[in-house]
Specification:
It contains five helices and no strands. The chain is mainly alpha-helical. α1 (about 5-15) runs antiparallel to α4 (about 45-65). It is globular, with a radius of gyration of 13 Å. About 20% of the residues are buried.
């Protein structure tokens, strides 16, 4: 499985729907709106839940960037999700698309 498909799978889980074109539909939504929708749909109720959802969403957005050279490696994704690596300071998941 390539990293783009992995990111699509994460987005499908988070949004509870089958995404036919994650890059076009998800990346076009404002970040805060998308995060709030996912947070509310999943019935999350704590600040830690919001932070976990935000991290997973950011990683999924990185994985589904339009240019493959802008996507992280699977090793980096694993490190990001396990907390061994942090997202670059000041970068959002929408940069570099």
């Amino acid at each position: 499985m390539d990293i783009y498909k992995f990111g699509e799978m994460i987005l499908e889980i988070l949004t509870r729907e089958r995404l036919t074109n994650a890059g076009a539909s998800i990346h076009s939504k404002p970040w805060e709106v998308l995060l709030r929708e996912i947070y509310n749909e999943n019935g999350a109720s704590s600040a830690s839940s919001l932070q976990e959802i935000k991290l997973v969403l950011e990683v999924a957005m990185l994985c589904t960037r339009s240019r493959s050279s802008d996507r992280p490696s699977m090793e980096d994704v694993l490190k990001l999700l396990s907390g061994l690596k942090h997202l670059e300071d000041g970068r959002t998941s929408k940069e570099g698309q």
